[in-house]
User: Which sequence fits this backbone?
């Protein structure tokens, strides 16, 4: 129990650092999604199931979807493909 | 002596002051001119010619100021791109890390003096909590105490929160909406957005549509379960609304805006949001008018644990769920192509 | 002190996450990363709040078998507060992302420094 708790908290810190150090925007978003899911598990361990279900649905679901649509709007998702086409 | 003076003038502080003052000097000149101008003009000069001259001079001065401004801008820009960039960048990184470290350090000092994690006698665990837990079931009729608390004892918080969500949706609507033209036809911008939107996406993807047919009903059903069961088990309006809206978003993604528009338009959004928020406000106003806390309000509480129990909590959960689902769906639609 | 920090490990991690989010907010020039940093900060605050309500050996505040003694359940108030906070953080995230999309449409970049420079040049002209 205690070990699981420590591992989850450590992963939280690692995810938060990885958001900053990844090169690609998409990667950092997916890392942030993982951060939200870990947070949901931690809230389950803190005996707050209401928070866990809300965070899993809202934090990891809707917020990430909004971020992805924004990335699509600002053409960050197709950057590599455009680059390849330019090289050809 | 002169060398010394120029040295003094070339000191960094002095140069900085001069650089800062340049705007004021131009202002001084203009004031001086405007003071000196009347009375000095000789009577024999044609007034039209004088006006032309003055205009030309003004134009010239304006051009000169603009050029100087651009030069200063360019110098600053070049400096920021070369030497200054590295210097200020390093300073910025150093100071930011220092500030972050200091915040962490001082807050850690506070955490070390906090009451121990998980102890029962912390100050946060006072008589309010005892009252909520011991009387909550009898007074609100909700098995889930969190739902009973946020939708009965502290319901005004939740009303404000729903309103914040609704206002955020309105702000996004203002920022991202692309209107149709006067005749109701899509404008050029909308068509461009649409083609841009579908650029790298297959239309009518078989796999996505098959998955959506399978998953959308399950998601909607699960969301409804979470909303309707909010007073009995974990969940409630917010999480349930988010799940319902994720089902709707999946459907929209698979089948496009035309099919989704059959059951969800701006009118739906307006009426559902207005109706849900209005119902929430009226219901809570009635409840508080009838004496809020434990007094007789003629709303049956039902048997705790049954689906029809908890008085107003289930209808309020439904209202909140509707607002959240509509808001999230409209967020997505607006980000996607600026309209429904 | 280290012993005390280890005993309050949830709150310690929450404080560290808050600092990390703050530094991300200051150091990253990309607007999307700044928004993620702000979200990390708010989540850290929620973790701190939720950990205040936890009590060892007690269960989530959902009445089972009609037991309503206070010594069986954890503190429900922080949970309610954090629930409100999560929804508000979603709405401000949506709002800020909309502003980001508008800025990108106008300036064609996400770098906050370049956007500020271009805005200044526009002001001069």
Assistant:
């Amino acid at each position: 129990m205690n070990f699981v708790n420590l591992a989850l908290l450590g992963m939280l810190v690692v995810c938060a650092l990885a958001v900053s150090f990844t090169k690609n925007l998409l990667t950092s978003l997916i890392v942030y999604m993982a951060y939200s899911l870990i947070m949901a598990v931690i809230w389950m361990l803190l005996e707050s199931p209401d928070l866990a279900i809300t965070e899993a649905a809202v934090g990891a679901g809707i917020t990430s979807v909004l971020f992805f649509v924004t990335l699509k709007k600002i053409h960050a998702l197709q950057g590599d493909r455009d680059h390849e086409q330019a090289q050809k | 002596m002169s060398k010394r003076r120029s040295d003094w003038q070339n000191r960094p502080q002095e140069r900085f002051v001069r650089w800062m003052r340049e705007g004021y000097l131009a202002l001084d000149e203009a004031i001086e001119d405007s003071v000196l101008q009347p009375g000095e003009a000789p009577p024999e000069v044609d007034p039209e010619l004088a006006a032309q001259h003055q205009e030309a001079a003004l134009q010239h001065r304006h051009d000169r100021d603009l050029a100087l401004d651009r030069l200063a801008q360019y110098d600053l820009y070049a400096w920021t791109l070369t030497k200054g960039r590295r210097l200020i960048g390093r300073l910025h990184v150093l100071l930011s890390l220092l500030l972050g470290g200091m915040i962490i350090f001082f807050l850690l000092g506070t955490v070390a003096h906090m009451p121990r994690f998980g102890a029962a006698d912390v100050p946060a665990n006072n008589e309010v909590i005892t009252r909520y837990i011991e009387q909550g079931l009898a007074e609100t009729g909700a098995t889930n105490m969190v739902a009973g608390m946020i939708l009965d004892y502290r319901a005004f918080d939740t009303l404000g929160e729903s309103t914040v969500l609704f206002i955020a949706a309105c702000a996004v609507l203002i920022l991202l909406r692309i209107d149709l033209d006067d005749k109701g036809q899509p404008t050029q911008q909308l068509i461009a957005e649409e083609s841009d939107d579908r650029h790298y996406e297959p239309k009518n993807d078989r796999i996505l549509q098959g998955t959506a047919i399978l998953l959308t009903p399950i998601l909607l059903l699960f969301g409804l379960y979470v909303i309707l069961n909010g007073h009995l088990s974990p969940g409630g309006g917010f999480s349930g609304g988010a799940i319902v809206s994720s089902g709707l978003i999946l459907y929209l993604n698979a089948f496009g805006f035309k099919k989704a528009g059959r059951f969800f338009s701006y009118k739906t959004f307006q009426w559902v949001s207005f109706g849900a928020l209005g119902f929430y406000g009226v219901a809570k106003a009635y409840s508080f008018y009838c004496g809020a806390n434990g007094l007789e309000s003629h709303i049956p509480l039902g048997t705790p644990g049954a689906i029809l129990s908890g008085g107003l909590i289930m209808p309020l959960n439904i209202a909140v769920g509707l607002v959240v689902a509509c808001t999230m769906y409209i967020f997505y639609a607006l980000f996607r192509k600026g309209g429904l | 002190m280290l012993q005390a920090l280890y005993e309050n490990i949830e709150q310690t991690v929450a404080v560290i996450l808050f600092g990390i989010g703050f530094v991300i907010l200051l150091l990253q020039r990309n607007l999307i990363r700044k928004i993620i940093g702000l979200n990390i900060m708010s989540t850290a605050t929620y973790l701190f709040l939720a950990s205040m309500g936890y009590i060892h050996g007690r269960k989530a505040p959902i009445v089972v078998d009609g037991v309503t003694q206070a010594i069986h359940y954890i503190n429900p108030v922080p949970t309610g507060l954090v629930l409100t906070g999560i929804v508000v953080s979603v709405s401000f995230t949506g709002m800020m992302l909309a502003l980001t999309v508008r800025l990108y449409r106008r300036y064609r970049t996400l770098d906050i420094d370049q956007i500020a420079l271009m805005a200044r040049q526009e002001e001069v002209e």
